[in-house]
Amino acid sequence: xxxxxxxxxxxxxxxxxxxxxxxxxxxxxxxxxxxxxxxxxxxxxxxxxxxxxxxxxxxxxxxxxxxxxxxxxxxxxxxxxxxxxxxxxxxxxxxxxxxxxxxxxxxxxxxxxxxxxxxxxxxxxxxxxxxxxxxxxxxxxxxxxxxxxxxxxxxxxxxxxxxxxxxxxxxxxxxxxxxxxx
Length: 182
What we know:
By secondary structure, the chain is α+β, with helices and mostly antiparallel strands. The protein contains 5 helices and 6 strands, in the order βαβββααββαα.
C-alpha cells in the first residue's frame, strides 16, 4: 500500500486524472481517495489505464443505473468522493481516444453541475455570512480596541481566502471553457 497527499481543486479534475494514470503506469493502482487529498494505491503491474471523473449528484442518487451505464461502455467504477465519481479503463481495451464524455456539450454540462453543486453554495455562504460579518466587525473595530480589531482581522482573512478561491475557480473555469472552444 502506498499513500500520497495531493490536492486538486474542482477545475483541476483533468490533472487529477493524469496523476492517477501516471501512478498506474509506475505500478501503483489507485484504490481510493480519503480525507483531504489522501490517495491510496496498491502495487500492481505497470499498465496504461485511463482514469475519468464525473460530477453528477443525480447519478449518485440513482447509483446502480448510473454505474451500469458506464460499465456497459467498459468503464470500471471505483468510488465516489466529494461529489465526483471515479472510473477507469485500460488503454488496451479502448478503441482509439475514449472518454466518459461523448462531446464538448457533456463536458460543459458537468461544469454547470460542479458550479451548481460546489461553487454556488460557497457564494451563498460568502454573501450571507462572511460579508455581513466583515461589515459588523469593521464597525466594531473602528469603535473598539484589541479584541474587536483582532476579530475583524480574522474575518477579513476569511474574506480574502474566499476571494482567492473564487478567483482561482473563475480562472480555472475560463481555462477549461477556452480549452473546449466555448
